[in-house]
Structure formats: structure tokens, C-alpha cells
TrEMBL record:
The chain crosses the membrane at residues 52-70, 77-100, 112-131, 152-176, 196-225, 246-270, 276-296, 308-327, 333-354, 363-382, 394-414. PANTHER family: CATIONIC AMINO ACID TRANSPORTER 1 (PTHR43243:SF1), INNER MEMBRANE TRANSPORTER YGJI-RELATED (PTHR43243). Belongs to the amino acid-polyamine-organocation (APC) superfamily. Cationic amino acid transporter (CAT) (TC 2.A.3.3) family. It comes from the Eukaryota. It is a multi-pass membrane protein. Keywords: Membrane, Transmembrane, Transmembrane helix. This is Cationic amino acid transporter C-terminal domain-containing protein. GO terms for molecular function: L-glutamate transmembrane transporter activity; L-lysine transmembrane transporter activity. One of its GO terms (cellular component) is plasma membrane.
Amino acid sequence: MAFIAAGNILLEYVIGGAAVARSWTSYFATLLNHHPNDFRIVAHGLSPDYRYLDPIAIVVLAIICLMAVMSTKGSSIFNYIASIIHVAVIIFIIIAGLIKADAKNYSDFAPFGVRGIFQASAVLFFAYIGFDAVSTMAEETKNPGRDIPIGLVASMVIVTLAYCLLAMTLCLIQPYKDIDVDAPFSVAFEAAGWGWAKYIVAAGALKGMTTVLLVSAVGQARYLTHIARTHMMPPWLAIVNEKTGTPLNATVVMLAATAVIAFFTSLGILSNLLSISTLFIFMLVAIGLLVRRYYVSGVTTIANRIKFIVFLALILGSSIGTAIYWASSTDGWIGYTITLPIWLLSTFGLWLFVPQAREPKVWGVPLVPWLPSLSITVNIFLLGSIDKASFERFGIWTLVMIVYYFLFGLHASYDTAKEASSAKALIKNVEEGGA
């Protein structure tokens, strides 16, 4: 399960970076008064979803790769300065957008109803990738037990508020039917009669996407390095360059994979596949939290372990049932009267009948098991709003990971663990959350 989660996080980084790189090309074209596809090569022999080849995205990723491998400190300074500029551009967009706002654009507030809202919510998780990159920087943080939770929670609150304000402003500037998919804010300001503003927006967007790519490059390389240290991935990926202090091999490999995907894959395919991967990871994290709180080897009794497994299975089963019913029934409600009570009673049973075996030492998620259980059902429910083709692509990726794990990763990591310590010490280390 850990390897599947790790593989999907790597997929999330690659797909997310590819999507941002292609968006970089779109905003760059807008800045030069061109259509986004004007700077892409059209391969008419390929499917419409893969025919627009993007060489600019590859160039941008190559530059990001050089910046990421040169110096972590230099990258941090660049991001610090760029973030100040980014905040200024966001404030400008909100203020200028509200000046040009037209409340009539909200006359049809939810044109696709409740189902449309949840379908959009599933893809909206695109905006929340990257927060897990904060945790990969634990080795370079002075007080990770305190600073990382503060950084994660505070940044997520700020980003959520900014995202809502920007989305609200965009729909007030321009009717939702006319919003440009590739460069929405630049085109919206131009349509509203402020052609000069689109240059500020486009320049700010390019700067923002550049920092996103750089942060992603730094985070994904370190994540791959952690995995390679267990030998689940080739150990040469864990090598840190002596001069720069950065994981050179891991950075190059991850950004090369990102460049290949960014070269030919459309933004729509990338966003849906990214959403599946992100929602799946969030669900696994919530499950992992419950396992960590309720199970400790040698402490949890057999009876409590069985009760925990039963309640967790019921939570998962009812959540999956709710998602399937939502995806297959357009206006039904009877199925929810079965699945939702099962979820509620299962969570209540876990809270009432199974004692927690571990308490957090520094910082812990509150309202356990209610909050992680709700996270499980919400993430699975949103997965039910994503199209079938994206699930097929996700299934292929998962199958490839499983085959790789059983043919290589499992044996390599086992041999490494046996060499490193005795079986008893290894079990204790794993139970305490070590590698």
C-alpha cells in the first residue's frame, strides 16, 4: 500500500508539472498576442488529445531542472522573491476584476446543478497538489515537528481563500461560457476592455507557474530520493551531489519524465488523471492515519484489531457504494439511505468500541476517527465524478506499479533491510514510522 501511494505521488508530480508547463506555453502565447496553440506543433496523424506538441514546455522544464540541481538555497531565495511578486499580482487581479465585475454573470449561478458542482470539485483538487512537498523538506527544516504542520495548515488556508476569491472574480468579469480554458484571466480582462491588464496578468501567471515548477522539482526529487534509499527504486537515484547538495539524478529523471508527458498530452487528460491520483492519495493518507492511531504491534489486542478491520472495511465499503450510486444514478436517492447510515454507524462504532493505541507526540489530527473517516468518504465520493477513460489510465499505471513492485521493489528493499539490521530491530523501526 505504501508503494502504491508513493507511486501515485510521483505520478501526481509528473502530471502536475506537465500540466503547468503546458499552461506556461498558453500564457506566454497570450502575452505575445497569440493563440495558445500557435506555438505548438500540430501532428495531424495523432489523436486530438495528443496532437498538439509543445516544445516550449520542454525548454521551460529544462531551465527549471538546471535551477533545481544548482542549489537548494538559491531556489529558495528565488521562490521567496517571486512569491512576493505573485501575491501582488493576485491582489491586482482581485481588485481590478471587481472593478470590472458584472453581477449579471451570476444570474445562472449553478448552470449544471449539484452534479456539476461535484464534478468540478473532483477536478478542483488540481489546485491542491504540492502541499505534500512541504513534508519532503523535513530534513532541511530546523524544527519539523512544529514547523511543517504550521506551514501546511497555514498555506492551505491562504491558498483556499485566494483560489475562491480568484474564481469568484473571474466569473464576475466574464460569463462562464466565454472563459478561455488555456489563459482564462488574460482573455477575461481583454474581453472586459482592459487589454493592458492582460499583460500584467500573463506576466504574473508565468512567474507563478515558474515557481510552481521549481517547488515541484525540488519536492519530487527529494521524494524519489527517500524511496530510492530503501532500494525500492534504483539506489543511484538517492545520490546527492557533493558540490550542490542536491539529488542530481532524481531531479533529472523526474523532470525528464515530466517533459515527455508535457510534450504531447492535452491539459484536459492531465487534469482528470491528476485528480484521480490526488484523491486516491488523500484517501490512503486518511486510512493510514486511522491505522497508525488504532494499531500498534504488541499493544493492540487481537479482538480490537479484528473490530478495527471490520469497522474500517465498512467505512470503505459504504463510501465506495455511495460513489458508485452517485455515478450510476442521475436522480435517485434510495441508495444513500443505505450507504450513508452504514458509514455513520461504522465510524461511531470505531469511536466507541475500539481504543486508540497511539497518541500524537507533537501535533495530531483532531476529531479522530470522525475527520479521517469523513475524508475517506468525501475523496471516494469525488472519485465517482471522474470519467471512465481517466480511471482506465489510472488502472494501467497502478498495474505497472504492482508488477514492478513484485518483480523488483519488494526483493530489493527486503535484501537491503536484512543487511541493515536484524528482523526484530527492523519491525520496531517500521512500527515507529521509520524507513
